[in-house]
From TrEMBL:
UniProt xrefs under InterPro entries: ClpP/crotonase-like_dom_sf, ECH_dom, HIBYL-CoA-H
Pfam families, per database record: ECH_2
Organism: Tsukamurella paurometabola (strain ATCC 8368 / DSM 20162 / CCUG 35730 / CIP 100753 / JCM 10117 / KCTC 9821 / NBRC 16120 / NCIMB 702349 / NCTC 13040)
Sequence ranges assigned to domain Enoyl-CoA hydratase/isomerase in this UniProt record: 18-333
GO terms, molecular function: 3-hydroxyisobutyryl-CoA hydrolase activity; isomerase activity
Origin: domain of life: Bacteria
EC number: 3.1.2.4
Keyword ATP-binding recorded: no
Keyword match Hydrolase: yes
PANTHER family linked: 3-HYDROXYISOBUTYRYL-COA HYDROLASE, MITOCHONDRIAL, 3-HYDROXYISOBUTYRYL-COA HYDROLASE-RELATED
Catalysed conversion reaction: 3-hydroxy-2-methylpropanoyl-CoA + H2O = 3-hydroxy-2-methylpropanoate + CoA + H(+)
Protein name according to UniProt: 3-hydroxyisobutyryl-CoA hydrolase
GO biological process entries: L-valine catabolic process
Amino acid sequence: MTDIETADIVTTVSGGTGHIELNRPAALNALTTDMVHAIDAALQAWESDDAVTRVLITSASPKAYCAGGDIRAIRDQVVAGEDFTPFFRDEYEMNLRLAEFPKPVIALIDGVNMGGGVGVSIHGSHRVVSEKALIAMPEVAIGFLPDVGATYLLARLPQGVGELMGMTAARLGAGDALAVGLGTHFVPSSAMPNVEAALLAGEDLDGVLARFGDTAPASTLPLDEIADVFGRDSVTEILAGLATSSGAWADTAREQLSTACPTSVFVTFGLIQQARERTLAQCLAEEAVVGARMIRRPDFVEGIRAVLVDKTRDPKFSPAAMGDVEDAEIEAILGS
């Protein structure tokens, strides 16, 4: 196959390994439409190519695997009254293709991995994390919702963990990611280049991961406490339980919720509950519909302004308090 190269995605084939390198380090590999198309084109080409036995996805950034979608560009489209839906449609198609890929897909997560980056990694068969890995779905901070199939993933984590991640934008390190199943293997950051080189040289995948793997950092998640609080049946019950919980995890959750978009918190909870009865394809379809409704609300433009444009982190969401969110509004947003 002819190698494909764009400014932000570099694809090659070596040692039976189709290699996708995310190469937009200045933007922490935030995904653009062109990047989504390039990744999808490579997956389509390699799916039926017998010379490619596996896919490896890595990052050229020393800081991040992928910080998410280029959400500022989406905001610009919304403000300009342009159609923002093609990006999400194409991104979700790529996410589903990666999840259903018939060959091993190995992501080397050696840094920040959030939002859209989760969609280009966690759906794969091998999610290799280093001590620098930091996995999160922070969309509630900008008036949006966990997408790229994240509602499906979050709904299948240990009780309460998906709600904690989706509703509070909790960040999981390597030990936590492995403990809840988001990560599958641990390799120290210093050995990640060795893993990449060995796979591109055609070495056996399991052997490579065993050779360079090491003991992972311990998880700090108190899973029983999280299940007790975030495993409850409603947002109101969760907030009541969190109010009386102690520990660093609860302090962080309360702090994160204090700046989260209240409507996003309720919508995210609802989607995670529904996702337990849905396939990944159904979750992606629902995220597209509900996500478009959220993007059209003023909270989205305001959230991007506060977090990514002005970086004041003082969003003025409406409603501004969890207690002011109306059931009818959430039902309308979630309604099919």
